[in-house]
UniProtKB/TrEMBL annotation:
The active site is at C342. CDD domains: PLPDE_III_PvsE_like. Residues 23-369 form the Orn/DAP/Arg decarboxylase 2 C-terminal domain. Belongs to the Orn/Lys/Arg decarboxylase class-II family. GO terms for molecular function: diaminopimelate decarboxylase activity. This is Type III PLP-dependent enzyme. Residues 311-328 have a biased composition (Gly residues). One of its GO terms (biological process) is lysine biosynthetic process via diaminopimelate. Residues 306-333 are annotated as: Disordered. Gene3D superfamilies: Alanine racemase, Lyase, Ornithine Decarboxylase, Chain A, domain 1. It comes from Actinomadura barringtoniae. Its cofactor is pyridoxal 5'-phosphate.
Amino acid sequence: MITDAVRERARALAEDEGLPAFVYDLDALRSHAAAVRSALDVPGGPELFYAAKANADEPILHALEPYVAGFEVASGGELEHVRRVLPDARLAFGGPGKTDQELATALRLNVERIHVESPYELARLAQLAQEIGREVDVLLRVNLKSDSGRKGVALSMSGPFGMDPEAMEACRPILERAPWMRFRGVHAHLASGLDAPDMVRQSAEIVDWARSYGDVEEVNVGGGMAVDYADPGRIFDWAAYAKGVATPDVRLRIEPGRALSVYCGWYVTEVLDVKRAHGDWYAVLHGGTMHLRTPVTKQHDQPFTVIPTGGPTGDSGGHPGGDSGGDGPATAEPVTLVGQLCTPKDVFAREISAGRIAVGDVVAFAMAGAYGWNISHHDFLMHPKPGFHYLSERG
Ligand SMILES: *Cc1c(COP(=O)(O)O)cnc(C)c1O
């Protein structure tokens, strides 16, 4: 699971006191993205955009660029960032609560599609585009009460996102009055965490609904392709999805984030202490969930690899009788991995049988490439920030 390049760098960082750190394997990201892209390459298959909010680090965007058709951005900040990093990339701008300033920025920075969230937003966009003197292409974001794939949905996107069919109707007269605003089709992002068969059903529902709404050239069926934190090797079946959704007469687009970038990142740290409290074993790690909040927000065990180092290498002052290779405690019992925060929520993984774990060992948490550092509360407790390393054979 852990790549050789990451393992090697993790060891080196441990020796150089460079932990904790995020280590991204850009070559692994490129091969994954290339595989996804080629799986989608069937007649009538979907065009691939990357949802930048999953991880918009510059090296990640550069590595993905050759394999994706474009990028979906969800705020004015992301929009300006991605436009600066990739001046020629095709962009789609979505997200709730767009300000006039953000909409104007989108018009100025040549966003290819704006995904409109409400009739009021559509009316404001029409007016701004007229004032600035730009034409604009829109998809209307629909909020459907989808039945497909209810089970296993990690995050249902109902609620305030997009427009119900009634609000979609209210858009028609606004569009008619503003011919400089071109209706291209429908957008929907209904749930995340769906596997391929459920995603095929959901996408088909969206396409059917879009056809019933009107003459649509294109349908963006969103992101949300499943990843499995409990079984990282079980990846979304892109080929089956592409075959299942392929539609000859409508241009299809998808915009996954997590399922593209999650696998390329590791949060690498080291064991500071191993202790027992009321019968339970804990490994206290350098850093914490202020760097990698994902296991807290998703309430899961973050998958990890222990890279034994035999404990602290300093030969001085070892405690005689210590049962690790170094001079600190160790355990082979099921262990809970925690960080340095003064909260019981600072847990990466609970009661895991991981073999022997000792003070000084390196722990590399996998699947930290998406919704990791960028969703975390970095400043809580004022610990130092981690290092960031982007590995690439291409330099
Ligand atoms: C977050 C988001 C995505 C990406 O979702 P993933 O679960 O990361 O694939 C795509 N589209 C929209 C509108 C989103 O809000």
